[in-house]
Amino acid sequence: MVSAPLNQSWIGRDMIVTSSPDAALVGRSGLVVDETRETITMLENNREVILGKNSIEFKIGNSVTIDGKLVRQRSEDRIYRNKRSE
Q: Residue 1 domain-assigned?
């Protein structure tokens, strides 16, 4: 079984930052417009905001919280990666 948002494209989906060492990032939300190996770019109030995956935990839609440190690979590698059931 494929885990919901981890193995799907995040571009075009809503995102909210749930945790970060930088308190100013917590609660920021917007539409994901790009993803690289190290960053996620989201559109927040008509401005592009680039966030480092290494320093945030976030939710895509109504999913479980995703730790950015664990998804530091290119989106095409993440989407096609097979996850073992635990």
A: no
For residues 44-62, b (16+ Cβ closer than 10 Å) or e, as one string? eeeeebebebeebbbbbee
83 belongs to a structural domain: no
Q: CA 11: distance to chain centroid?
A: 9
Under DSSP, is residue 14 helix (H, G, I), strand (E, B) or coil?
strand
21 within 8 A of 54, measured Cβ to Cβ = no
Beta bridge partners of 49: 42
Q: Is residue 17 over pLDDT 80?
A: yes
List residues bridging with 48 in a β-sheet: 43
CATH number at residue 66: 2.30.30.210
Name the pTM for this structure. Answer: 0.79
Q: What is the CA radius of gyration of the chain?
A: 12
Strands (E), the chain: 14-19, 29-35, 39-44, 47-52, 57-60, 66-67
